[in-house]
Amino acid sequence: MHALLRKRDVRAAIGWIGVVWLSPLFGALLYFGFGVNRVHRKAQRLRGLKSPRLYGARGRGADRAMERLKTAVGAITRVDLEEGAVEAVLQSGDEAYPQMLAAIDAATTSVSLSTFIFRADGPGLRFIEALARAHRRGVAVRVLIDGMGGGFFLSPAYRRLRTRGVPAARFLHSIWPWKMPLLDLRLHKKALIVDGELAFIGGLNIAAENVLAEPARHPVRDTHFRLVGGVVQQIADSFDDDWAFATGEDTPERTRPPARETPGAPARAVASGPDHAVDQLALVLLSAITAARKTIRIATPYFLPEEQLITALQLAALRGVEVDLVMPAENNHRMVAWASAAHIRPLIEAGCRLWRSPPPFDHSKLMTVDDEWCLIGSANWDARSLRLNFELTVELYDAALAARLSALIDAKRGDPVTLADIDGRMFAVKLRDATARLLSPYL
Predict the structure, then answer these.
(1) Residue 192's closest CA among 101, 254, 81, 83?
(2) Would the CA dihedral through 336, 224, 385, 33 be positive or negative?
(3) Those residues with Cβ within 8 angstroms of residue 26's Cβ, 6 or more apart along the chain or in another chain
(4) pLDDT of the residue at 52
(5) Cα–Cα distance measured from residue 235 to residue 396, given in angstroms and rounded to the nearest whole number
(6) Which residues of the chain have pLDDT under 70?
(7) What is the DSSP string of 136-193?
(8) How far from 316 is each of 156, 368, 383, 395, CA to CA, in Å?
(9) pTM of the model
């Protein structure tokens, strides 16, 4: 009954009902151990219930596509638009790490860092030392590392931080069997907030493979962003929610820094994950696709969205929107690449253009619409980011930035993916890819 009434995903509801029907006792135990979303209930208790209200843009011009998109995303997220400015678009750790480390060293009041992967290698040790220096000089430092991506049992970076006295926590980390269901829910956010007025967000983890100038077995290209403006406080609020969720600690009351006089554009942080009542990220993506009139450009390392997003992209292409999707030619997760290959034929048939970016593996997550709107942050186009992971993205209504990111996405385009490529696979490969696609909700 609980699965029938509470599960948003029809496939999940049918699956769990089938398991319980086949084995009432064992199936019920499995469901209450693994199928009940306790994260959302806990988040509601910590966050409190928000009363509904209308957010976003209203008034004259509200019939324009971008104005309607502002209102839609505001209603989905219940977060107001703020001013936000991207001061720098940073390529991989080569450009991002020096600026992030300098910001930590310049911090005077607070440093908050959340990350999925934090290795205790060359770059990681530099971050550990910078965070320890900030802590010693009295800066309020908090570091939140995903319990799985941070190394699970060993967690070397976490342990080194704790040894140096730096307040650090692991998100949904446990070795106890009764907490095992939460292992599938990961903190995928990458955010550094300094003094409440400067933030770095994007897809960049903290690991040596993200520095392309240093030899690595599996180098990773990525894109990160340096932001200022009122939207930084929304990013900080998201970190506070995650810290309270992971540690149970109340966030101390802080005086907001005075707003910096920085020219900016309307911007909004979009936090998403199983702690929200609706699949916020999927709804934001659907709203943006629907708003498109001329172009949609997407760069993502993993492309395994659910059918409604596939359909929305098809419809956009069929109504004349230029849809360009860039994915890596070489993927670091083979099964994801296999499943994706079985997923994309309908898009090509509808007129979407798909491209492979040349090596090294490109982990960037970028989206632009009509060179007026862009979405940046940590989220991929897969079931994990859309439903299971705790993600952080920022939307910006900034034409100059959108045009710049569109050019960046275009520059990543390598060989096109054609119907001939899809049809030319050997039968065994098609069978393998189709089988992997069945597992796409769990990849």
Answers:
(1) 101
(2) positive
(3) none
(4) 38
(5) 14
(6) 1-63, 174-183, 252-262, 442-443
(7) HTT-EEEEEEETTTTTTTT-HHHHHHHHTT--EEEET---SGGGGGGGG--B---EEE
(8) 46, 14, 21, 20
(9) 0.85
